[in-house]
Amino acid sequence: KNEVEQSPQNLTAQEGEFITINCSYSVGISALHWLQQHPGGGIVSLFMLSSGKKKHGRLIATINIQEKHSSLHITASHPRDSAVYICAARQGAQKLVFGQGTRLTINP
Amino acid sequence: EADIYQTPRYLVIGTGKKITLECSQTMGHDKMYWYQQDPGMELHLIHYSYGVNSTEKGDLSSESTVSRIRTEHFPLTLESARPSHTSQYLCASSSLSTGVTGANVLTFGAGSRLTVL
């Protein structure tokens, strides 16, 4: 069993739908990252959070430390949101344990 | 604008050649990382550095080596490339500071896609 599990692995939705991607981890963490990887391979860091909730534009990330669970939400989804979303658990100062990624496709 | 740069973006090379993948960042970050990612697979840490003259091997066994002579520069070298080294190599850097989203604490380069024939 992976230390960081994401669900679903693949998600297809229509433009405008509310999207939720889940991340569960089994290790102790100092923070959790949400990353976005586009088809060309480039990775953008979306959020780093260690408690509560953060919001940036249409993206919202939440984390529940007790339940070892984090979610990434996208409101009013758009085809340009299509990408692979990766959660990564930070252990200590340098170690990141990555989930397998969620491939999101938003159809117009 | 501060950023992290990787060169080359794409490289096709023959077996046995020595290659160096360059990574530079202009943010003054102390920590830098090299990750390896096969298509559709997870990222795996192969090397990291806490600062100048500090380098450590990561979780994934790798035949590559790194150096950190300057804060901004973290090159990765393969002395003798083999087809099994074909992969994407991603460089990243991080700092302790946090912004609104905390996202600026971890920054990735665009990646170097290596093909060894």
What features would you highlight for this structure?
heterodimer; A: 108 residues; mainly beta; five-stranded antiparallel sheet; 61% strand; B: 117 residues; four-stranded antiparallel sheet; 11 strands; globular
Topology:
The complex is a heterodimer of chains A (108) and B (117).
Chain A: E1 4-7, E2 10-14, E3 19-25, E4 31-37, E5 43-49, E6 52-56, E7 59-64, E8 69-74, E9 83-91, E10 95-98, E11 102-107
Parallel strand pairs in A: 2-11
Antiparallel strand pairs in A: 1-3, 3-8, 4-5, 4-9, 6-7, 7-8, 9-10, 9-11
Chain B: E1 4-7, E2 10-13, E3 19-25, E4 31-37, E5 43-51, E6 54-57, E7 65-66, E8 76-78, E9 87-94, E10 106-108, E11 112-116
Parallel strand pairs in B: 2-11
Antiparallel strand pairs in B: 1-3, 3-8, 4-5, 4-9, 5-6, 7-8, 9-10, 9-11
Structure description:
The complex is a heterodimer of chains A (108) and B (117). Helix content of chain A is 0%, strand content 61%. Chain A has 108 residues and is mostly beta strands. In chain A, the strands form 2 sheets. In chain A, strands 2, 4, 5, 9, 10 and 11 form a 6-stranded mixed sheet that branches. Chain A has a 5-stranded antiparallel sheet with strand order 1-3-8-7-6, with no helix packed on it. Chain B is mostly beta strands. The relative contact order of chain B is 0.32.
